[in-house]
Amino acid sequence: MKAIECLKYGDAENLVLSHVEKPTPKDDEVLIKIHATSVTTSDVLLRRMNQPTIPRFILQLIFGFGGPRNPILGMVTSGIVERKGKDVRSFNVGDNVFAFGSVSPVNRRFGSYSEYICLPEDWNLALKPANLTFEEAAAIPYGGLLATHLLSKMSINRGDKVLIYGASGSIGTMLIQLAKNAGADITGVCSSRNFDLVKSLGCDQVIDYTLTNAESKLETYQYVIDTVGNSKSSLLKERSKKALTSNGKYISIDQGTPSTPRQSFRLLKTLSEQEIIRPIIDRVFPLEKIVDAHKYVEMGHKRGSVIIAI
Predict the structure, then answer these.
(1) Mean pLDDT taken over the chain
(2) pTM (2 decimals)?
(3) Which residues contact 242 (CB under 8 A, 6 or more apart)?
């Protein structure tokens, strides 16, 4: 089968198209013919592996030194069950499914940059919402699960003011919809070209972080949520950390290790079927253009998700 392998950490050109053996499902697994996956910010960070010395050493202990222990990256899957193990009861051959390759911080699987993948039936794996295409379904798990992780750190009451820094990315676009569904009054921070998008998802106010006086637009908020993390900062972000009510809370995606429990994945499926949340897709690349997709994500200005069609 075709697969993209990461030969070593570093530039996007280290991702190469290869032909590898098609996997065989174990007794508790299903074999999925992949129709779509996603290039996430986490994929890019893992491929680059350019963190400071101590964090980089810890990450390479987990993922491999010199290059990934599993050279086929990718954690998002959307496709069709082609085979199943003898003990599988929840899925049948021909089922349209979607999945995320992590159920806990220590229990994860890569391998979706390929034509096939095997996953256990008790994974973050579910029938694809019938109202979504394979590409749309692949735009749900990454941003959605990280957004539900951030939401779990809040206790939103109707009318609470919430500031979302990085509102137009894959996490931000999902968090806007989830927080609006919980009754929040939302201010989104992004560039002006994304104002219409984030307003359509539920933002009540917007701030253009590129303006020199952007910090003057801040009010006070019950929650200030940073979906971008420590890799990027600005005067606006630093000021927003203190733009809190007396009992307000600042939450960053980089605080601790995000959890991705199965109940959150099932919730995203339900909310997608009810059209309470909708996926946002920036661009779709073919598998053979994975290098271009990584370079685009690496620029840091994508709107929602970048999808790979296989």
Answers:
(1) 95
(2) 0.94
(3) none
